[in-house]
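LAB NOTEBOOK - FOLDING QUEUE
OPERATOR: T.R.
BATCH SIZE: 2
PURPOSE: Compare the predicted structure-token outputs for two unrelated chains run back to back under identical settings.
PRIORITY: normal
REVIEWER: second-year student, initials M.K.

ITEM 1
FIELD SEQUENCE / FIELD STRUCTURE:
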Amino acid sequence: MGNGSSATAGQCGRRRARARRVLRGLRAVSAASLLTVVAAGLAGCAGRAGASSSIQLATAYVPVSQTPGTTVAYVVIRNNGPADRLLAARTSVGGQVAFRVADSPGAPAMHTVTAVPIPAHSTVAMVPDGIHMLLTGVPPLHGGKDITLTLIFAQAGKVSVVAQVTNPQSGGSSYFLN
């Protein structure tokens, strides 16, 4: 992207496989050196995969549904670039995703919004009594399962993260408790 290094899907796959082999053989190497090796091996693949260097997703969490077919999802969004907007989201298990916001800080009443502003150089953390994603029409989800959340931004495009389905009632953790 911009540096003249675009890779084909096959090249990206070979680079990922080579990076995995290198990772297995370099267990004693420091974390900083290891990250450098992986980054060099995957150069040019981020643009093809739809990832954005300005938006990073972390700490994704989906609690086990208490109501059949409905649950929520939370994710931390870090924007290292200009202001953006979260326009849509989808899951690897299907269903529909809506963005919900509290009517006022800490209020139990929620309303749906069509987009979520992501300010420049900021972190937006989705939380139960604030902005979060409402998932409807999803199959039963069980603790310990991983699903993929794909968020679609106005500027950054599609960015995905693996979210763990957890069940705090049975001892499964959530990032709110850790």
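ITEM 2
FIELD SEQUENCE / FIELD STRUCTURE:
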Amino acid sequence: MPGDLSGVSYFMREPYVRAIEVIRRSLASRGLRVVGQLDVARRVERSLGIVVAPCSILFVLPLPDVLGVASMHPWAASFLPLHILVSAVGDETRIQVPNRVCPDPDEAETELVAAISAIQSHVSEALGAVATRPRMVV
């Protein structure tokens, strides 16, 4: 198992619906595609009858030519697609990337870690271009 798993959060001063559009465009401009979107808030409301703030999970994969490799290590499938949690917080939007792979220095050169790290870097660039990282993640 490569490294430990941690998360990172971002904030946008945009309402939720607009933030989703901006995030999708920013990801696409860096060779990433949203292959699915799960509307968590709607699912909770349908299943439990509880109304919660808008919240979705975006499932993200790189376009084939982004990494410059013909294929990835089979174990990469356990980390893909990457998940991005987008949720409304009042008039702003919180973006979380859970379970980021933080490689051990000894494993940093393996094919698996290199591919996942490259994809995570593209996601970080895309989100960093449209959102801000909080000083303190709570």
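REVIEWER COMMENT (ITEM 2): Helices lie at 16-28, 40-48, 111-130.
FOLLOW-UP: none requested
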